[in-house]
């Protein structure tokens, strides 16, 4: 009994993360109140972080919680609180066709993706970073940081500059008026 | 040829497809800029799941680096988007897409 729990518990947890993420995503697109939708999005991001942790992507899982579920969603909540709730009336289109057609379109897209994924083949070219190799080289975060500060040093700098431009742009846009 | 990855990877890839199509449907249905931005975040998250899963399936670390950069760009994008939203609300007193026709006239 104990053994069965130990082998089946990770799989059950993983499936639970997936199902909860999908349900919360439905909440994001269907809930009218933006605060509830934002909380659903936080649920999606936390569950996705759990999925990353299961796939031994520790650094990405931590970034997902800190930056996405933390910083970005706090920004969202802040703006939602700043605006009035009444301003989000007339959210859905009036005609039923404009709701049903996108749903059908998205469903067809989903079916195509699932068929492609189920019948897809694994890539013939496999990289060097197996789970064991990453463990031997000092764990996920160490390996990620070594690659980030050697191969990806230029993109890293560019992304830093991008963040600074975004901050300046956001302040300029949100300022009351230019003098 | 073998199938893509193991059990975990396939499940995560299907979740990624589900989240992406939910976000896509939401973008087409909703008429409210906050909801549109949240749907964009949903689609970006779906892409992140794909990157991490394929990185695991192919024993490659570059996918995880890509996720880091995507998260950074998403942070910049939502900061700019919400700044635009506040500027828009100040001028129009609402955040729906129906009144966004100033460039048409």
Write a brief caption for the model.
The complex is a heterodimer of chains A (179) and B (105). Chain A has helices at residues 2-30, 34-54, 58-82, 97-119, 131-136, 140-148, 153-174.
Describe the structure.
The complex is a heterodimer of chains A (179) and B (105). Chain A has 179 residues and is an all-alpha fold. Chain A has a single domain, classed as Up-down Bundle (Four Helix Bundle (Hemerythrin (Met), subunit A)). Helix content of chain A is 75%, strand content 0%. The longest helix of chain A is centred in the N-terminal third of the chain and has 29 residues, at 2-30. Chain A is globular and about 55 Å long. The model of chain A has no long low-confidence stretch (mean pLDDT 88). By secondary structure, chain B is mostly helical. Chain B has a single domain (7-92), classed as Helix Hairpins (Orthogonal Bundle). Helices cover 75% and strands 0% of the residues of chain B. Chain B is built from three helices and no strands. Chain B has helices at 7-29, 33-57, 62-92. The longest helix of chain B has 31 residues, at 62-92. Chain B is elongated, with a radius of gyration of 18 Å.
Instruction: Return residue spans of chain A where pLDDT drops below 50 for at least 5 consecutive residues.
Output: none
Oligomer status:
heterodimer
Mean pLDDT of chain A: 88
CATH fold description of chain B = Helix Hairpins
Total of domains of chain A: 1
Strand fraction of chain A equals: under 5%
Continuous helix count of chain B: 3
CATH superfamily of chain A: NADH-ubiquinone/plastoquinone oxidoreductase chain 6, subunit NuoJ
Produce the secondary structure layout.
The complex is a heterodimer of chains A (179) and B (105).
Chain A: H1 2-30, H2 34-54, H3 58-82, H4 97-119, H5 131-136, H6 140-148, H7 153-174
Chain B: H1 7-29, H2 33-57, H3 62-92
Helix pairs in contact in B: 1-2, 2-3
């Amino acid at each position: 009994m104990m053994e069965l729990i130990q082998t089946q518990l990770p799989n059950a947890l993983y499936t639970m993360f997936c199902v909860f993420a999908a349900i919360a995503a439905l909440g994001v697109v269907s809930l009218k109140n933006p605060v509830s939708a934002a909380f659903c999005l936080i649920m999606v991001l936390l569950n996705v972080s759990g999925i990353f942790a299961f796939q031994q992507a520790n650094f990405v899982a931590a970034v997902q919680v800190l930056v996405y579920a933390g910083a970005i969603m706090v920004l969202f909540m802040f703006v939602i609180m700043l605006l009035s709730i009444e301003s989000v009336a007339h959210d859905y289109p009036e005609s039923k066709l404009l709701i049903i057609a996108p749903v059908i379109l998205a469903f067809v897209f989903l079916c195509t993706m699932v068929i492609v994924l189920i019948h897809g083949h694994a890539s013939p070219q496999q990289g060097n970073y197996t789970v064991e190799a990453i463990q031997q080289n000092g764990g996920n975060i160490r390996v990620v940081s070594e690659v980030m500060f050697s191969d990806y040093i230029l993109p890293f700098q560019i992304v830093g500059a991008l963040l600074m431009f975004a901050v300046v742009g956001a302040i300029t846009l949100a300022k009351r008026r230019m003098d | 040829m073998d199938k893509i990855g193991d059990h975990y990877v396939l499940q995560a890839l299907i979740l990624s497809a589900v989240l992406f199509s939910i976000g896509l449907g939401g973008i087409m249905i909703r008429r409210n800029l906050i909801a549109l931005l949240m749907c964009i975040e949903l689609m970006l998250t779906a892409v992140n799941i794909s990157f991490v899963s394929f990185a695991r399936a192919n024993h490659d670390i570059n996918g995880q680096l890509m996720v880091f950069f995507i998260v950074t760009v998403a942070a910049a994008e939502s900061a700019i988007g919400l700044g635009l939203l506040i500027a828009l609300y100040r001028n129009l007193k609402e955040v729906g897409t129906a009144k966004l026709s100033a460039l048409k006239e």
